[in-house]
Amino acid sequence: MIVGIPDEIVKAELEGDFKSARTLIQSFLQMGNLSTLQRQRLEYECERINRLLEAYPYNEEEAKELFISEIEDATLEEFDELLENKALDYIIVEGQKRFQKRFIHNLGFADRNYKERLRKDERTEEARKLLNIRVKELIDGAEPRCYRIVLKMISRLTRHDLQGNRLRCWLPFPKVVKPVRSVRLLECDHEEYNVAPNHRPQRTIYMEDAIKEDTKFAVEVEYTIAEQVHHIDPDEVGNPPAEILDVYLKEKPPHIVFTPYLRELTRMIVGDETNPYLKAAKIYDWITTNVRYTYVLPYAVYSNISQYVVENLKGDCGFYAILFITMCRIAGVPARWLSGLYVNPNGFVSPHDWAQFYIEPYGWLPADLSFGSARKDTPGMREFYFGNLDGYRFVANTDILEDFTPSKRFWRSDPVDNQVGEMETEHVNLLYDRDFKTDLEVLQFETV
User: Fold this and answer.
1) Helices 18-29 and 36-54 meet at what angle, rounded to 10?
2) How many domains does the chain have?
């Protein structure tokens, strides 16, 4: 994604003429004077188009039906007015409007009125309430707890027309990294498996099996994780070790790139502050008060996530984290990625991303910008998620854009992160939600 694509292809895509865009790509690929990078970029553009179109599955009639069913007292006239005001997320595909998979929820994020009218999920609401109660207790001085959690992951094929003989599966596997204290594999339904070493940036458990209608991969893991509450004295902050600076101040294209605008915006936010902790605090404050949460398209379709966020002032948890990491590194504050799952005591589980920043002599401190931003109207809540963290987590990744053990042969469903696993055959990558599904179940959640 560090190479652009020819203007003719860009123009066809903007006009919604994806058939012509694909034809143009094939014409360019037949040219003999392309660099290796440009050829790879054009080949990937075909894949990117496929994923983009799959993210917009609804035609206008289907979108209207969803709007009426999901929003209380909704009308078709209201839908048409929102459409006219460009308030609904859609693209033009071959002359027809196609609506984003979660356009209704994004409407709720953008407009509090629609958020109140959206049909509520009781389990999600209960999970949010439990979390807020616990965070309030920590803010009020409660002793941090350590939790023992047992999680079951089952990946199943949902597509049954696959060619080939073997199915390869990678599921996220927890890492022992602050705040995770211990990890244990309790059960795997395959006798042969490969757990990646703990030092791997994106840790997985790998399995293979024959392609059958009922092929599945099931794993049970146990881990202990601690809540994090820190009391930082800015006057005690020192200089990080050289090995930290060498690794965690670097660019990592295409998403952690020090573009001119990101450099200038970071300079404006940080000002003449020299203390690393206070620099990170200023960046956190700006992002959590200026960027709006929204569901995004598959990460695979974006060319530069951090630049996208500052240009559009919206994004999901991973977009928040990548922007924070990028700005911190520009400001000279070491920062890195953390991700995996949010795991609530009531059994609610969801993919989640956040960040860490390094402050000497305190070490790696957490920053969960999307959780902080979502609670900016509650006193103390937004501030808590800078330097502190709840214990309702599953950590599998400490970097983005990293290879698996063993490596995949084909493009990944998510080339940036790994929260719900990956699958492929000898011939093709399989996409999450279309070709396979991963179910996550909390078997135990207790204080230790």
Assistant:
1) 160
2) 3
CA 101 to chain centre: 16
pLDDT at 213: 82
CB 219 within 8 A of CB 152: yes
Rounded CA-CA distance 225/227 in Å is 7
Whether 2 maps to a domain, the answer reads no
Q: Are 179 and 226 in contact (CB under 8 A)?
A: yes
In the predicted structure, residue 379 carries a pLDDT above the cut 90: no
Of all residues in the chain, the percent with pLDDT exceeding 90 is 95
Q: Are residues 11 and 86 in the same domain?
A: no
Residue 417 near residue 400, CB atoms below 8 Å = yes
Strands 292-293 and 314-315: parallel
Stated pTM of the model = 0.96
Q: Is 384 left (phi over 0), alpha (psi -120 to 50) or beta?
A: alpha
Residue 314 within any structural domain of the chain? yes
> Rounded to 5, what percent of the chain is helix, strand, coil?
35, 25, 35
CB of 399 closer than 8 Å to CB of 406: no
